Amino acid sequence: MLRAPLLALCICIAAGAMPVNAQRAKDALVQTDGNLKVNLAGVIGRSDIVLGRPNLDPLEAMPLGNGRLGAAVWSADGLTVQLNRGDTLPYRDATGQVVIAGLSALTGAKDYAGRLNLYDGEFEERGGGMTATVYVQPESDTLIVDVTGADPAKPQTAVLKLWAPREPEASVHGAVGMLAESWLDNQDPGASGRRFGSLAAITAEGRRVSATVTDARTVTATFFPDANGRFRVIVASPHYAGTDAQVADAALAGRDAGQHETWWHGFWHRADFIKVSSPDGVGEYLESLRTLYLFSAAAESGGEYPGSQAGVADLFSAVRDLHQWDPAAFWHWNLRMQVGANLGAGVAGLNAPYFRLYRENLANMETWTTQHMGGAPGACVPETMRFNGAGIEYEAGSHKTHQVSGWDCDLASTPYYNARTLSTGAEVSLWIWQQYLITGDRAFLKENYPVMAASARFLLSYEKPGADGLLHTSPSNAHETQWDTSDPTTDLAARRALYPAVIAAASLLNEDSGLIGQLKAAIPRIPPFPLIDPATPAALLPAGGAEDSASVIAMSYRPGDRIHNVENIGLEPVWPYDLIGDESPQLPLALRTFAARRNRANIDWCYDPVQAARLGLGSQVRDTLVKITEDNQRYINGFAKWGGNGQEFYVEQIANVALALQEALVQDYDGLIRVAPAIPPGWSFDGRVAARDGATVDVQVRNGVPTAVGIDAGAGQAIRIRNPWPGDEVKVIEMKSGTKSGTRLVKASRAAVIAFTASPGGRYRIQRTKDGSGDRFQPVDGQPATAVRRLGPVQIGLDPNP
User: Fold this and answer.
1) Which of 223, 252, 683, 696 would be a feasible disulfide site paired with 206, CB 3.0-4.6 Å?
2) Please, are residues 471 and 525 in contact by the beta-carbon 8 Å criterion?
3) What residues contact residue 375 under an 8 Å CB cut-off, 6+ apart?
4) Which residues pair with 64 in a beta bridge?
5) Can you tell me the distance from the alpha carbon of 161 to that of 320, in angstroms, rounded to the nearest whole number?
C-alpha cells in the first residue's frame, strides 16, 4: 500500500511550484568570456529546433531533462510527454506518459509554431492564441507544463498512464494522482538482488483541481484554467525503490530552490561553444548537431548511472519500455566518444556517472575476474557490463523476441563479440588519466586510481612470454571484429598507452612501487603493431621487419581470422589510445592505414572523423561527418538510428560530431597544443576547447586559416603550443588587464613550437608579428534559428504544412 510519506510528495509538488505568471530572468545577451566577446544566447540559439508544424509522431519528440529525469515531448493528442529515468533498472522502464488533451486547440491551429529553446532548456509552442512551455526543474525531478490563453470556462484534463504488462498501484491523495511500482532485480543472469521502482505523481494549478483513478494504470487530474486562461500541469518523478523513507526524502528535495533557465544558462556559460560556417552550410548543420549533443549530455548525465547505456539516448525515449539492447548493460565502445566530447567541451563533470559506474563496481569486477578468468588478479573490465559489474549481456524477457546471453571477460564462454575483449579496462583507465590531465583534480585521480591499477594488474597477468621473448595476449578479441585471435591491436595499443599512464599516476600518488617496477619491465616486451599489405590482407608481414611504403596496421597477428563487425581496429592507436600523432615516426603508417581502412563512414558510431582529425585530414573530417550524418540521422531532433527494427534515438553519432569538431579546432592529447590542425578547407570557426591543467584555448579561423588565438592558463603551467602560422614570428602577449595598455610581451619566436610559463589564471594571446594577427578577436554573434536546417536528405526541425 502507498503510505503517508507519499502524501508529503503530493503536497510538495503542488506547493513548491512557481506561480504560472512568474517573470523569468534573462541572462545578458552578450558576455565576455576568456578572450572572446560572445552573444552566447544567440550562438546557442542558432541550433534551436524549429517546428513549423506540430510534431505529432513520437519519433519526432523533443528531448528535455535535468540530468536525472528525462522527457520526450511531442504533440499527439494535444501534448504527450514520456518520462524516463536511468535508475529504473534492470529494464529502464519509463515512469509514465502524460497526455494533456486540451492543447489540441494549440497544436491544431493554423498559426502553430514550436521551438526547442536550447539556451533556456524549454520546449515552446504557440498557436490559436495559446502558448505552452515545457521544462524540467533542476533541483526537483519535476516536469512543468505552463499554459496561457486557454478558455477559462472549459475543463481541462491531464492524464498520467502506464501500459501492460506494467502493474503500478494507482492512487489519489487530495488533488494529486499517483502511479507507483517497485520490483526486485532477481530474475536475469547476474541479477543484483536490489529493489528498483518507478514513481510519478500528477497535479495541476488552476481552479477546482481534483484527481481520480481512471483505471489500474491511469490517473487523471481535472481542473479549470484560472480567470486569465492560465494553468500549469506538474508531474514529479523522483528516484524510487519502493520504500517510504526514500519517497519522504524525495518529498523534502522537491521544494525547488532553483529555476531551469538559471540552471541552463549556467551550463552554457561553462560549456565551450563552437560556431562554424561554411559556404555550403555543412558547417552550420554540424555545429547544430554538436550543440544538440551538449544539450542532451547535460540533460542525461546527472544520475547514478550514465544516461546512455549503448549509445542510445535512453532518457529521451518515446517508445514506452521498448529497448533494442539489454537495458541493464553498458557498452563501453558506445560511451567513449561521449566521454571525450565532454572533456573537450570543458564539461568534464558530465563524466561523473561514467567514472562512478566503474569505480563503484571495482570490487565486483575483481570478483568476476577471479571467478571467470582463471583466478587472475586485478580487473578484466567487461566491455558489455551490467550496471552491477557483471560481464553479462542478456537480451530476453518481455522486451525481446529472442534470448541472447553474452558473457564478457569469461574464459569458459564460447567465442563471442566481447567474450574475451581485454582492453576495456585500459580504456576506462586512460579516460581517468585524461580527465585528471584536463582538470588537474588530484582528488579525482586518487579516488579512481584503483581502477587503473587493477586494470594493469590484470593485463600483466594475462600476457605470456613467447619464444621471441615478447609478451603476448591470446586468446583475445580484437574488440568485436575478430574473436579469440592473437595479439590484437587493441591489446597492444592498450598496454602501450596504459602502462606509462599507471606509472605516472602511481608515482604522483606515491602508490604501488612494486607495480611500477612490473610495468617498466613489461613495456619493452610489448610486441610491435602487426602489419599487412592491403593487397594481401590475410598475410602478416614479417615480424620486426621495416615498414615499407605499402604496409598498414592489421587488426591482430592473425589478420586472416574471420571478421564479425565493422570496426577499424588498425586505427585504434591513433584514437583513443593517442599513440600515433602528427609528431610520431609512425604517422605515415597511420595515414596509410586510414586510407586503406576496410570500413568507411559506415555506421552511426564510426570514429573516422575523429581519427581523420588526429591525422590532420581536414577534408576527410568534413566528408566522413557528412556521410555518417546523411546515412544515419533519422530523426528531426538530430538523433541517429543505429539500425535494425528498433525505434530508439541514438546519441552516439552527434557525440562523435562534437568530438570531431573539437579535435579539428584544437588538440592537446600529449601536452602540445595544436591550433586548427584539421579544419576542413574554406571553413570558419569561432570557438573554445579545453586543454590540459584547466586551460582553455580560444580560436578564430577564417577560410581555414587562424586569425586569432588566445589561451586562458587555468592553474598555470608550462605551455607548449605549435606555431599557428608556421615559419612566421609570433609574440606571446600576457593580457594583464584585458586592454592594450595592460599587456606584457612574454616571448617572441618563429620556432615551430612556442614554449612559455603561464601564471595561474593568466590570459595570453598568440599574435603574428608581421600583421598583428592573433590580437584581433572579433565579437561572436548569432541569432536563434528561424527555419529548418538541412543536409542532403536529412534535416533538423519540421517545415510548415504546405
Assistant:
1) 223
2) yes
3) none
4) 71
5) 11
Contact 60, 798 (CB under 8 A): yes
Q: How many CB atoms lie within 10 A of CB 752?
A: 9
- Distance from C-alpha of 132 to C-alpha of 74, rounded to nearest angstrom: 12
Cell of 545: 621487419
Largest CA distance in the chain: 88
Cis peptide before 475 (omega within 30 of 0): yes
Q: Which three cell numbers stand for residue 214?
A: 481512471
Prior bond of 528 cis (ω within 30°)? no
- Which amino acid type is present at position 300? E
Name 276's bridge partners: 685
Per-residue pLDDT band at 774 (split at 50, 70, 90): low
Rounded Cα distance between 400 and 515, Å, is: 45
Residue type at 679 in one-letter notation: I
Say if residues 729 and 706 touch (Cβ distance below 8 Å).
no
Model confidence at 587, pLDDT cuts 50, 70, 90, reads very high
The single-letter DSSP state of residue 633 is B
Predicted TM-score of the model (pTM): 0.95
Q: How confident is the model at residue 244 (pLDDT cuts 50, 70, 90)?
A: low
Name the β-bridge partners of 124: 115, 133
pLDDT, tens digit, for every residue of 87-132?
Answer: 999 999 999 999 999 999 999 999 999 999 999 999 999 999 999 9
Terminal alpha carbon distance of the chain: 53
CA distance 362 to 382: 11
pLDDT at residue 643 is higher than 60: yes
Work out the average pLDDT over 170-181: 96
